[in-house]
Automatic annotation (TrEMBL):
Protein's UniProt keywords contain Membrane: yes
Membrane topology of the entry: Single-pass membrane protein
Subcellular location, record wording: Membrane
NCBIfam families: hflK (TIGR01933)
Keywords (A to Z) from UniProt: Membrane, Transmembrane, Transmembrane helix
Listed Polar residues bias regions: 1-10, 381-397
Family membership noted in the UniProt record: Belongs to the band 7/mec-2 family. HflK subfamily.
UniProt source species: Proteus myxofaciens ATCC 19692
Residue stretches spanning the membrane: 81-102
Region (Disordered): 1-43, 55-75, 364-424
Name under which the protein is recorded: Protein HflK
Length: 424
């Protein structure tokens, strides 16, 4: 039989009714069931009432002992309102507590119930509280790690090395979850890489010339070491802070370094001298080449000019060979005698008079300069010593019988040289 079947037998089967409601109120079972149906009109009110009963009976006792004689009276409505306000306040506080801010240099790693969920960018974000957790990770700041110690080289020497590694977090998820302690793991990988590179190098090269090469090898080996572990780190730079020998041999290595620096200084000075002298030598060589080229050109052109001149004289020589021969002889002698000391010969006797005209003119010029400096305010009369040698060669040498040919062509030379050629 169903719980809502009419009759007295269904009185105790109404889930909303009060089993003793009819008796207490002096009414039948039908009235008690009617009150139960009125109280169950709203499911939300039933939920709030049951919750209030569990929390301490704020919604009233179970049964119909309300002042009005019915369940769900004013006291029950007030309790339901308080519960609704409390729940609404809790929801508001819960929603407001989910807002958070990620800084500009950071990224947020979100985990939902402890499992990685997503990565959020800088700015204002929201998460469901008690469900998601956010851990910010700085991904732009350059961090550093310093390690070092006494290490053995390939030539069985000990060297003190300190190295600084600069790195950044490139993957926050791998940085937080793949390795338990990324800093310790990076330090161990750095020690392994440095000792491996130092163990393959000689001590002298570590302290002097190969430091940059060793640094590059250390960085490459460190990156190769941490790559399989996916630590979420990226190496920015590797620097050697200290690389020195033990104190017992430090003085000897200081001397070696000083000698090497002196060698480099001498090499630089030699290169500077080379850079100064070499361009000058190249310039002089180029100048000599150009001068030789110019001389070659001038000689060729002069020869070509002489050939052209002889080519022009050839028709005249064929027309008058004696006159042309004499003219060529006179021009040649004139060219030769113009560059030598002047000689005047007397064809009537065997005597020869040599006149040093250049020396006489030079002495005349020097004496004139000295007289001009030492002369008083009144200019003295010229002496015969300074004037006579200059006038005598002029009147004697340049007469009509000597070099009159300069003014009259080649006619002046017809008499003296004509007889010589005839004798030939």
């Amino acid at each position: 039989m169903a719980w809502n079947q009419p009759g007295n037998n269904g009185q105790d089967r109404d889930p909303w009714g009060n089993r003793n409601g009819g008796k207490n109120n002096g009414e039948g079972n039908s009235n008690g069931n009617q009150g139960g149906r009125n109280r169950g009109a709203s499911d939300l009110d039933d939920i709030f009432r049951k919750l209030s009963e569990k929390l301490g009976g704020l919604g009233g006792k179970k049964g119909g002992n309300s002042p009005s004689g019915q369940n769900g009276g004013p006291r029950s409505n007030a309790g339901n309102l308080l519960i609704s306000l409390a729940l609404g306040a809790v929801v508001v506080v819960w929603a407001a507590s989910g807002f958070y801010t990620i800084k500009e240099a950071e990224q947020g790693v979100v985990t939902r119930f402890g499992k990685f969920y997503q990565i959020v960018e800088p700015g204002l974000n929201w998460k469901p509280t008690f469900i998601d957790e956010v851990q910010p990770v700085n991904v732009k700041t350059i961090r550093d790690l310093t390690t070092g110690g006494m290490m053995l080289t390939s030539d069985e020497n000990m060297v003190q090395v300190e190295i600084n590694v600069q790195y950044v977090v490139s993957n926050p998820e791998e940085f937080l979850f793949n390795v338990t302690t990324p800093m310790n793991s990076l330090g161990q990988a750095t020690d392994s890489a440095v000792r491996g590179v130092i163990g393959r190098s000689e001590m002298e090269k570590i302290l002097t010339s190969n430091r940059s090469e060793i640094r590059d090898q250390t960085r490459q080996q460190l990156e190769d070491t941490i790559r399989p572990y996916k630590m979420g780190l990226s190496i920015v730079d590797v620097n050697f802070q200290v690389a020195r020998p033990p104190e017992a041999v430090k003085a000897a290595f200081d001397d070696v370094i000083s000698a090497r620096e002196e060698e480099q200084k001498t090499i630089r000075q030699a290169e500077a001298y080379k850079n100064e002298v070499l361009p000058l030598a190249k310039g002089n060589a180029q100048r000599m080449i150009e001068e030789a080229t110019a001389y070659k050109t001038s000689v060729v052109m002069r020869a070509e000019g002489e050939v052209a001149s002889f080519s022009k004289i050839l028709p005249e020589y064929r027309a008058a060979p004696d006159i042309t021969r004499e003219r060529l002889y006179i021009e040649t002698m004139e060219n030769v005698l113009s560059k030598t000391r002047k000689v005047i010969a007397n064809d009537k006797g065997n005597s020869m008079l040599v006149l040093p005209l250049e020396q006489m003119l030079r002495q005349q010029s020097q004496s004139a300069t000295q007289n001009a400096v030492e002369a008083p305010a009144r200019t003295p009369a010229p002496t015969s010593h300074s004037s006579t040698p200059a006038q005598k060669p002029a009147s004697t040498t340049y007469g009509n019988g000597g070099y009159g040919s300069n003014n009259n062509g080649y006619g002046g030379y017809g008499q003296p040289y004509g007889s010589n050629q005839g004798g030939q």
